[in-house]
Amino acid sequence: MSMRKRGPVNGHSNGRLNGSTTKTTRIEDPKTDYSRWRLRDDRGIQTWHYLQTEEEMEAWPQSIADRHFMGLDTGLPALPRANNPMQAAENGLEFYSKLQLEPGNWACEYGGPMFLLPGFVITLHVTGMPLALPEQTEIIRYIFNMQNLGEKNGGDGGWGLHIEGDSSVFGTAMNYTTLRLLGVSPEDPRMRKARGCLYDLGGALNGPHWAKFWLSLLGVMEWEVVNPVPPEFWLLPDWVPISPWRWWIHMRQVFLPMGFVWSKRWVYPKADTDPIVRQLRQELFTHPHEEIAWARYRNAISPIDNYNPKSWLLDLINYILVLVWVPYLRFGWLVKRAEAFVWKLIQIEDANSDHADLAPVNSPMNLLACYIQEGPEAHSVKRHRERLQEYLWLTKDGMLCCGTNGVQNWDTSFTIQAVYEIGLAEKPEHRQMLLKALEFLEDQQILEHAVGYEGSSAYSDPPTAKTSAECGWRHPRRGAWGFSNRAQGYTVSDCTSEGIKATLMLQTLRDPNNASKNLFPQVIPEQRIKWAADILLTMQNANGACSSYEATRGSEHLELLNAAEVFGRIMVEYDYPECTTACVTALERFTQVYPDYRTADIHSFITRAIAWIRTNQRADGSWYGSWGICFTYAGFFALESLATQGETYANSERVRRACQFFLDRQNEDGGWGESYKSCETGKWCQHPDGSQVVNTAWAAIAMMKGEYPHKEPLERAVKLLMHRQQPNGEWLQEGIEGVFNKSCMISYPNYKFIFPIQALGMYARRFGDASRL
Ligand code: LAN
């Protein structure tokens, strides 16, 4: 095959090869009128709306939170200067409390991953359900704003896996495609630059499996380039160690619709006549499209995308599937059975979440499956389309797709706890805010098990981790809290834990003026808190640790089948010090309030969990965090776990080592700054921008939980937090805070409020507030 000459046909003339000289001066993209946008929060279901008329705007004024989310001036006044940490905490809370939404929750943008909008937009394109114009405009702006241009990551014109990442084929091919589908011209200088970057990386043929999947169904690639996703895997008996029901929920819920679409080799019906698809066939490759021998590129991948190379075993399996299974053994009846079963499981997922689905990868894929199976007019398709809106979020840089349909329960639970922990929950001025937050948690607790669970052979009350095909292998969930809202409907061990803790903190708080009176009503009845504890008790692994959505069901060896080259450790549930701590601290608090309920179970759970936390500490005193960056995040949890057992600096070598780990990494300015590279490499990596308020708060809280006795390093940390605080009480956005699957970063913008407030208040309570720092 001949390499296509780089020429203007493909828009290469200003590609990076000779395009590094191209001037990509900032181009002002069309922008919507930000005064017209509003966030609606309907009992935790959050959607952005663009108002058309003056009357609508008058009837629905923009809120402070709206303005904050969009990066507009909130107009909030400068507060009296904080002279000590407690005043700084109160100023922080004063600002942050203004961001609470009507139903009582906090919200924020939840971006970071750069592979979510593409799936979203491709799905809407191939199903003929375009986004509204204001959304299109803002998505274009967002994607351009995240492009690696100028100073950003070498400015090569591509996009990474996440907003801070180096350009990859996945990021670049998919975001380029998205922009084109939204109407951006290939002649835009930034698009030329992007193509140059893509060609330098080998073109879209060097993309990972997921890129090839999306581009094949769009009709830009041919299905032979996609490694097999056989839905017949789902027909394996439960006892088989590699059965999909044992996989991490995100993997199996993506594998499900992906297998359905792959099995049908479905292609966008208008691909051959759609001018954009036809042009993309010319724009995304370094070879002429018609000459590409697709099957030869199944395993082609650029090194930058290949974070987690496929194992020899998976390569072998793929060969067998491609050369033997698909052509000779995949009989029609088997295909039919597999597709029918997978379709049933898709329907279960849709029914359990009213078509919101687990996350914004499987949600558009399920929409597509419904479209293929039931046609464009089906209720399932329409409902999916509506619910997809919940994933969109407007920021100052444009519109993004969130990693989940919000952060409602998670941020709200943490907020309650921070305020409680620093003694401000008793103050009358915070009562209304906290009561609303508690009422929100009440409204969002999941009160029914998943479809089919109660009638299944796995059912018991109280539940166990047992599950069965009859309910789509869902974990029991009655009493749980999810990460976002009740509609999404998945328990997460730590989200349920944080929900329990926040609830119990408020519901047991005594009135400081009358010790026999509770300060807050019993909004969530005892029975429901017990249900939540029951759920936690189902979530422990055999070794004592806890995972995210379920107890671990499969062996780590399943990682050999990890086909998504861009992520690591995704195939099964793993043990996490963060989740384990959350469960320990929740059950600890629970058993203090309800000492007679399942006492032995709880005691054994806590003992085993703590033993695991101890063994999970690394030789250097740290713990590796999987959901926040990174050692500061996990240390903040682990030391809290140990503290519940009375294990502190004074009596524990472990805690001393953990504190030393932090002390050795404290910056001159008193803060800590940890880069996301820590997550990727497993080694502490200093943040290039120096101290970060979120890392600083986590490290300081960790050391205070561990009762580190010397004031000086903590005082320096607290000074940094005070110094970075703005006159109106807020902190400004710094580096990205969260992570998943080791390689993909995700933003938690409210952390910069919650944890500094908590750290400042804890310091004040511990070391006294009087001294002016
Ligand atoms: C999240 C967000 C929250 C997070 C915590 C609660 C912080 C964690 O302690 C447990 C795991 C959980 C719930 C989690 C799991 C993976 C998610 C859902 C995400 C990181 C947000 C986005 C991510 C999801 C996998 C994104 C879609 C990508 C795929 C690879 C399917």
TrEMBL record:
Domain of life: Eukaryota
Nucleotide-binding among keywords: no
GO-annotated cellular components: lipid droplet
EC number(s) given by UniProt: 5.4.99.-
Region of interest: Disordered: 1-29
Keyword Isomerase on entry: yes
Domain Squalene cyclase N-terminal: 98-295
Gene3D superfamilies linked: 1.50.10.20, 6.20.120.20
GO biological process: ergosterol biosynthetic process; triterpenoid biosynthetic process
Keywords: Isomerase, Lipid biosynthesis, Lipid metabolism, Repeat, Steroid biosynthesis
Class of enzymatic activity (EC top level): isomerase
Polar residues bias spans: 11-24
Pfam families in UniProt: SQHop_cyclase_C, SQHop_cyclase_N
Domain annotation Squalene cyclase C-terminal: ranges: 410-764
Coiled-coil ranges per UniProt: none
GO molecular function: lanosterol synthase activity
PANTHER family noted in UniProt: LANOSTEROL SYNTHASE (PTHR11764:SF20), TERPENE CYCLASE/MUTASE FAMILY MEMBER (PTHR11764)
Family to which the UniProt record says this protein belongs: Belongs to the terpene cyclase/mutase family.
Protein name, UniProt field: Terpene cyclase/mutase family member
